[in-house]
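[Q] Does anyone have a clean structure-token version of this?
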Amino acid sequence: MMSRKNRSLLGIALLALGCLVYVLVSRDSSDHVAASDPVPDPPEAVAATAIQPDAVKAPTTNSTAREITAIDFNRTRVSDFGPAEVPVVAVTGTVIDGGANTPVSGIEVMFEAVAVSSALTDAAGRYTMQVLPGHYAVSIIGDGYVIGDGYAGAREQVLVTGEGPQTVNLTVTRTAVVNGQVVDGSGEPMVEAKIDAHLRNDQKRMQSISHMWKFGVEPAQNVTGDDGRFAVALRAGRPILISAKAPSGAVAEHWLQKVTGGGSYDIRIVLDASARITGRVTLADGRPARAATVYVITYGKAGQKLAQRTKTDESGRYTFDGVAPSSRAVVEAKLADVGQSPAVKKTVTSGEVSEIDLALSEARSIGGRVIDGRGTGLPGIEVYARAYGSEVYILTKSDADGAFRLLGLAATKYQVGAQDTVLGRSELPEVPGGAIDVTIKLASK
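[A] Here you go.
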């Protein structure tokens, strides 16, 4: 991510380019000199008088001398430039605590585009700054506050029109601070455990908010330190699920049912020992399935999915270490063009060692054609099949005539579909493995 200093320098460079373009346009307009106009100075006189190292001169259309404009790169804010140089707009506003409906002082308001302009609110919660017209991402820095009803690091989009002074009032929300420690089953600090948070949206589904939060004084930190500790600032009000994931893959979670603005919460997350899943994969005739791909997919309480895969050895065996304890896991195997096993579902408990053998059924295929609304075959369309209860997708593409064939399927029912970025998606339910006359129709959106 570009630092604020680098963004400022880049902004100044663009301002310099704009000024130079303005100078060139003005110079071209003064090249056409009327017979009654004074004769321009000779080139050597221009060179002797044009360079102004301490200021940026505004070019004028009636000047007969061609001036060279210089930018002082020691100036880092729009407000450092004079009114004749850039069309700056005065922006003022008040920052209000949305909960208490009172002004908030000491908040740094930042308008960010290519360059960054910022100002602190005074005792009345007011701020003033000068910016160029354009679209801005407005954010704040203030202890215990976030902008709007979002999370630390949230921003609002603002358009500055340039049609005179503009007022931009902002509402902020007090944050809650969650301090925590992650430990293993014996109580020892867990180092480099990844921390995430999830909230329940209006559809009562869990969504990760790791991209909308901020950890203590190190915004980039997303793992626990040597002492297993972490800190995060979150918006008040919603139920929050804090999860920790160990390097081994084990996951543990902690619910905060109600988060109060300005509150501080101390939590402890215990990461139990991970589990092991091992077993053997065989072909339909009982021989070991060498180099078969085995998948294990686990689901946490927040609905987050963790997928792992491995290959069988010469004897058809596979092993997964570091499987996260989970309320639901799916294990299945596939060998290209040979067959697919039925999915096995189980609950994974801490420290458990599970032996799960998988048998590949006799290979089946599904064939057919992808057509448009007129019945014309569609080439290059992605076609997929997924067995019911499975988490593995079998993929192929239609040929020049729209025909396709999905290989290595089991003797079970599949959801078969086709999708395209322009024509959209169409899916057929309960297509049996072995079907050869499947037609998938895609129509324009």
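[Q] Thanks! Anything notable?
[A] Helices lie at 4-30, 43-49.
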